[in-house]
Write a structure and sequence with these properties.
Elements (H helix, E strand, L loop, with lengths): L14 E10 L12 H18 L4 E4 L5 H9 L16 E4 L5 E5 L5 E8 L3 H18 L4 E2 L3 E2 L11 E8 L1 H6 L2 H10 L2 E5 L11 E6 L7 H27 L2 H17 L5 H16 L8 H10 L2 H8 L5 H17 L1
Antiparallel strand pairs: 1-5, 1-8, 2-3, 3-4, 4-5, 6-7, 8-10, 9-10
Length: about 350
């Protein structure tokens, strides 16, 4: 079976992926920023013991045993955070399955961060899965919990449910029509967070944005999911309207997406940033039915295997920056011709 990030899901023309995560800490242990190395090790040992009883094909892996290219590939898939891999001396681990739709980070900012993923807009199914995993863990491990505040976390922004719901959306239409800044302001004013997944600016990040909830206390898990779904559906509607408007000028739109497709498929070398930008236009062209030479499944492969870490994993060798630019162009040609 294909990994979730190589599949298409509901509303995948706009919604690239969905994630639901729960933050938990173990009772009887200090928060991680106050933990000694010995205490961190005890947390790892305690959690490692329960992995066989969880099911889902989950495996425990110490972070120190994972090579740098694999770490980078996991960051690029948004399975682990860049901050998680920074301190190699810290006692950290992940619990992950072969499909990679479940990834639990141990000793990141908190003791446990349960994360579940899917392609497209699948928040209800993800919430059911993450709650199921959380309940299994909670039956064996005693969580740090307050009757007044809910689940206790290292950061006040996660206290309460400890739930963060997010979707990654592709918004080239809103960017090209100039409506994106207005949409970003509206969403941020509605108690949600929306930000570019590759940092500030739109041109070099492939017009990819992450929408997530800000509030975790004084609200139920179902309400959090419902709020993110409602906002996401409004953005989907706005993005599709923007694309329809752009398609009124048929020649300009076809010229834009096919120029991107030509550059992407005929380049002899290509940087990561340029690839993101070109892929954004090519994906839009495929989703609008303009580009017929490739399909959604190839777009998914291109999005994953052109990223630096996953490119090296795909080829099975470590490459320097210049070699990656050459090999990225070669891999694009291979995927397109498959």
């Amino acid at each position: 079976m294909l990994n979730w990030y190589l599949q298409n899901g509901k509303n995948s023309d706009v919604v690239v992926s969905s994630r639901v995560r729960l933050v938990r800490n173990l009772n009887g242990f200090k928060f991680l920023n106050k933990c000694s190395k010995e205490e961190q090790e005890k947390i790892l040992e305690k959690i490692k013991e329960v992995v066989p009883s969880l099911g889902y094909g989950l495996k425990y892996m110490d972070l120190k045993d994972i090579d740098d290219v694999t770490k980078l590939s996991l960051v690029e898939k948004h399975l682990i955070s860049p901050e998680f891999v920074m301190n190699n001396n810290a006692k950290k681990a992940i619990i992950i399955n072969d499909e990679e739709n479940i990834c639990i980070m141990i000793n990141e900012d908190d003791h446990i961060k349960i994360q579940v993923f899917s392609s497209g807009q699948e928040l209800d199914n993800l919430m059911s899965l993450v709650v199921e995993i959380d309940e299994k863990l909670g039956e064996i491990l005693e969580y740090s919990y307050s009757q007044k505040f809910g689940y206790l976390t290292a950061s006040p922004i996660n206290i309460g449910t400890g739930m963060r719901v997010s979707v990654i959306v592709h918004l080239p239409g809103l960017a090209l029509t100039g409506n994106l800044p207005k949409i970003l302001r509206i969403v941020n004013n509605l108690g949600m967070s929306i930000k570019g997944i590759y940092g500030e600016g739109t041109q070099n990040q492939g017009d990819m944005y992450q929408i997530s909830n800000n509030q975790t206390i004084g609200i139920t898990e179902k309400e959090i999911v419902a709020n993110v779904k409602n906002i996401t559906e409004k953005i989907i509607e706005q993005e599709r309207t923007a694309r329809k408007f752009l398609c009124k000028n048929e020649v300009e739109m076809e010229d834009r997406v096919y120029r991107a497709f030509g550059m992407l498929t005929y380049a002899k070398k290509i940087s990561s940033d340029e690839c993101k930008k070109l892929l954004s236009d090519v994906k839009m062209g495929v989703d609008l039915g303009i580009i017929k030479e490739i399909d959604d499944s190839k777009i998914k492969k291109l999005e994953i295997y052109t990223k630096s870490g996953n490119l090296q994993k795909y080829l099975g060798k470590t490459l320097d920056g210049y070699e990656r630019e050459i090999k990225r162009a070669e891999v694009i040609k291979q995927i397109v011709k498959e």
